[in-house]
Amino acid sequence: MDFVLGGFSAACAGFFSNPFDVIKTRQQLQGEMVSIQHGIKDLQLKAEKQKQPYKNIFQSIKSIVKSEGIRGLQKGLPSALAFQFCMNSVRLGTYQTIDNYGYNRNTNGELNPGLCILWGGISGIFGSTVGCPLYMIKTQMQAQSYGKYAVGFQHGHKSTLDAFKRILAESGVRGLWRGWTGILARTSVGSSVQLSTFSKTKDFLIGYEVFAESIVLTAFTSSILSGFYTSLAMNPFDTIATRMFNQGVNAEGKGLLYKNLFDCFVKTIRVEGLLALYKGFTANYMRIAPHTILNLTFWDLFKNWKDLYYDSVVYLE
After folding, report:
1. pTM of the predicted model, to two decimals?
2. Best-predicted range by mean pLDDT among 48-62, 203-217, 290-304?
3. 3-state DSSP of 40-80
4. Is residue 20 classed exposed, middle or buried when 0-12, 13-18 and 19+ CB atoms within 10 A define those classes?
């Protein structure tokens, strides 16, 4: 049940955070390897940047709505929600199981920060491995646009199912896990920071009775702090994962731009500078913060309702 609740809470949150995920994806792909692919010199590059359709949040929303309508802000929603459910049912379910057995706590019952980070990262590895194919399809569909609004490689998928069929036909089952190391690093880092800071903050608030008996306010406050640290730590890996998953492939199924995770890091920094790793940071935070708030708040609420239900069943018996 903990696994189902974890996945369901993430899917609920994903519906509200997906528009910022679309914006974040396009900002991370905007200007990708531009000086290598097009030979743009300094003055030309400066002029090119002025034409970028996704320079900031408001410009991004305007560009997406203008080119694809209001529905464009929910691009890739089915695959995004499926990814959230699959990945987080495993991730949050695993972490909750660890917490139930007390493996992330000291002998006196207090949460151990180091163990929280460790188990949060391990939970993220399990979840990202299961959700990898859906994350790749989500990324590729969110990147799809038209004309001057198109950034990155355009895969031209018609739907989530069409994307699965095309990838399987072109690259086989292994093709669904191409770029796995990108999401592995992204999710393990993000999960370890998110779950450890959320758990520790929540324990602190409960211990000092900051919000007394309010489950919602306790989870909400814990999620705000957790979302900030998560976006700060995860954004570089998120940018790399986006680029690895969206790149085109040759006839042998190998990436056209990047060989592996390390190669993507090196090329991105060398061509676009270190700050390129934080492309889309504002959109990413505006995605992660409310997603973390909604996801973990829903998660706590669902777990509380589950406990109340089981308690009532036991009472009636």
Report:
1. 0.81
2. 48-62
3. CCHHHHHHHHHCCCCCCHHHHHHHHHHHHCHHHHHCCHHHH
4. buried
